[in-house]
Amino acid sequence: MFPIAWVVVEGENYDSWSWFLGLLFDDLGIDHGYGWTLISDQQKGLEYAIKQRVPAAEHRNCARHVYVDLKKKHNGHVLKSCFWRIIRCIVESEFKRALNELAAILAGI
């Protein structure tokens, strides 16, 4: 993971994101986003700007940001360990087993 562009704007909002993504996608030659997956944090206006600029691209939230939101409601070492084990799974059966474990942990909280 490495930065490919940055910009200074008046604020993180839809207009700023739309402008920035328009320039970035034009420079990279990305039209509709087919074959692209974008991973980002949960900034205001970003999800909508991505959907408008590259509707065919997959957009997902960064795992660290998802965990931070989960941790606000449910804290604990067991939960943390289980969450990151899910993220690191590369085999579907391991993923499903870890996901069931997380569901059980959350049901017990």
From TrEMBL:
It comes from the Eukaryota. Residues 2-67 form the MULE transposase domain. Pfam families: MULE. This is MULE transposase domain-containing protein. The lineage of its organism: Eukaryota, Viridiplantae, Streptophyta, Embryophyta, Tracheophyta.
